[in-house]
Design brief:
Blueprint (H helix, E strand, L loop, with lengths): L1 H7 L9 H14 L8 E3 L8 E5 L4 E6 L4 E4 L5 E4 L9 E6 L2 E11 L5 E6 L9 E4 L4 E2 L3 E4 L2 H14 L5 E6 L9 H12 L3 E5 L2 E2 L10 E6 L6 H14 L3 E5 L6 H7 L5 E6 L1 E3 L6 E4 H17 L1
Parallel strand pairs: 3-12, 3-13, 13-17, 14-18, 15-16
Antiparallel strand pairs: 1-2, 2-12, 4-5, 4-9, 6-7, 6-9, 7-8, 10-11, 11-19, 15-17, 18-19
């Protein structure tokens, strides 16, 4: 899990993903000689901070968003949410501005009406516009991994593990997912126009619920706030059964992902969200079962060959 630990330590809230992208590019360049196929990388000004990695003759793409939730320093000591982070008094936050490194705490101030104001506690004023993220705190036991930003550094980790043996396929490391902007549209257009690619698997992390517990396998989402095309979903489930890999079926009424953005585009993409489930969502203590993580990797490997 060394790679996963390194990924969660990189600061990369929505809109600030360049460091994460550069880490992935460097990782691929250092490790691709040990992979089954050497991929072609697409990035640069036309891709903003996104990265597309193409292997052989792709027919299916894995989408994994690189960004995380966090906070922007506003006026004075006020903090403004990036995405939907949990806000618990005393949470440790880190960042940097022109004066140096920052390690601070979140202070939640609640008024008589129950309205909450978010502020930081620090010995100087932090420059406005500075981005703060949860302080890394990676914990591993025999059965679980617990850390900030399992969503979605674990989804990225999954994609990079699949890449080791991938012969034909594409991986999109996307941006802005947590805050709704998203680079999925132009990345999808690139893959559709250049390769005729129309199938996508969303490598992201979902929630522990009454219907999706720890340790029962990777979750295949039948729907969230968006609804994938049923014939494509049925094919995914059929292949999951054939694989003998442990999986669970998720049915939710809320939540979204890169799949939602693909569905809102004008591209004829089929997509399905497949990911391990975590508890303590959007907090510094996100926790995922190792069994579910391994099932996620193995099912992706199987689907990228047979889909």
């Amino acid at each position: 899990m060394k790679l996963l630990k390194e990924l969660v330590e990189i600061r990369g809230a929505s809109g600030d993903e360049s460091r994460v992208r550069d880490f992935v590019i460097n990782y691929i360049e250092q490790n691709q000689s040990n992979w089954k196929v050497k991929p072609e990388l697409f990035h640069g000004d036309n891709f903003q901070d996104a990265l597309i990695v193409v292997f052989g003759n792709p027919t299916t793409a894995i989408f994994a968003h690189m960004d995380s939730i966090g906070f922007t320093v506003g006026y004075g000591k006020n903090l403004i949410k990036i995405g939907g982070p949990r806000t618990i008094d005393g949470m440790q936050l880190v960042g940097s501005d022109s004066f140096g490194e920052i390690e601070t705490e979140l202070m939640v101030i609640e008024d008589h009406d129950g309205d909450k104001e978010l502020q930081y506690v620090f010995d100087r004023e932090i420059e406005r516009g500075t981005i703060l993220t949860f302080k890394p705190n990676f914990r591993e036991t025999d059965d679980f991994i617990q850390s900030p930003y399992m969503d979605n550094r674990l989804g990225m980790w999954n994609a990079l593990k699949v890449a080791e043996s991938l012969e034909n396929g594409a991986i999109v490391f996307s941006t802005y997912e947590e805050h709704g902007g998203n680079s999925v549209g132009f990345c999808g257009s690139f893959l559709f126009e250049k390769y005729g690619l129309r199938k996508a698997l969303i490598s992201d992390i979902t929630w522990i619920t009454d219907g999706v517990p720890h340790g029962k396998g990777v979750a295949i989402s039948m729907r969230d706030s968006s609804v994938p095309r049923r014939s494509f979903l049925n094919r995914i489930i059929e292949l999951a059964k054939e694989s003998k890999i442990s999986y669970q079926l998720e049915v939710e009424s809320a939540g979204g992902s890169d799949g939602s953005m693909l569905q809102k585009s004008d591209l004829p993409f089929d997509w399905c969200f497949i990911g391990a489930a975590e508890d303590n969502v959007h907090s510094p203590d996100e926790i995922v079962a190792k069994h579910d993580i391994m099932c996620m990797v193995e099912l992706y490997k199987y689907l990228m060959i047979h889909l």
